[in-house]
Amino acid sequence: MITRTSSLSNQKMKGGGESKKSYLSVSCVNDTCFERRPQQNHDCYTVIFIERGICECHVSNEVLSLTSSSIAVIKPGQTFNVMLQKGSIGNILSFSFEFMQTALNSAGMAQEFHSNCLAGTVCVPEADRSFLTDIISRLRQEFQTNNGLREEILRGLFQIFALYLNRISAPKLPNNQNRCLYHANRFFALLDEHFATLKMPADYANLLAVSPSYLNFIIKENFGLNTGYFIQQRVLSEAKKLMTAQEMTMKEVAYTLGFFDVSHFSKFFKRNTGIRFTDFRRAKVA
User: Fold this and answer.
1) Tens digits of per-residue pLDDT, 85-111?
2) Domains of the chain and any CATH numbers
3) What ranges does the record give for the region Disordered, renumbered to this chain (predicted)?
């Protein structure tokens, strides 16, 4: 379920663990409402895209100057302060890792987005600016409606947006960073392939021929959470998709995901989402 907020600032997720909520917010930003935006900690990614004018963005200890040729990507946990020059206008997107993973239908692609945006800013080719402006405008318009298939359309538009940023922002990194990112990329690729059968960090460490502690270190160093978290979230993401898209029963979902004890799957789902499987299904239907 996509959380909607009336506030233009990022909101912390409530209930069942903040980082486990699927969250998206799309807002218009201009010099009137965001001229002196206060610094804040947040648990989501934030993307700032300026359509016209100039924006100065203070991110932690760094100052970014944004125009229509660049995008700022702010990682979870970073503080930021946004100031726009008079007449400037743009958009702010905030979203959780879970929403991004669900929209892209791939832990690997979500990890690639995180890795590609390490620099904080992404340059937008002039030929692509109108395309990007249109996608974000459509995201904002759809976010403000309550029409049918709203969540599906938002995920589809966001998928195009995130894939586009992945394409134009792939960085050239030093060899030591390449090695770490290689193992991280391989972990997420293997996770997409084996999440239904392999659910322990040691399983993926064995496939990568590295130690579980090393794998956990590079994942936590780059993404802020341990290997086990991403394994759990990939399984949960697939469970929700099977429940909604294919209308499977809890027993069918459990068996498809390699849980041969349905009660074990039920406890796993509630422990990691804060809500029972049946209650989650009922909320989706409603």
Assistant:
1) 888 888 889 898 888 888 888 877 887
2) 18-169 (2.60.120.280), 175-285 (1.10.10.60)
3) 1-21
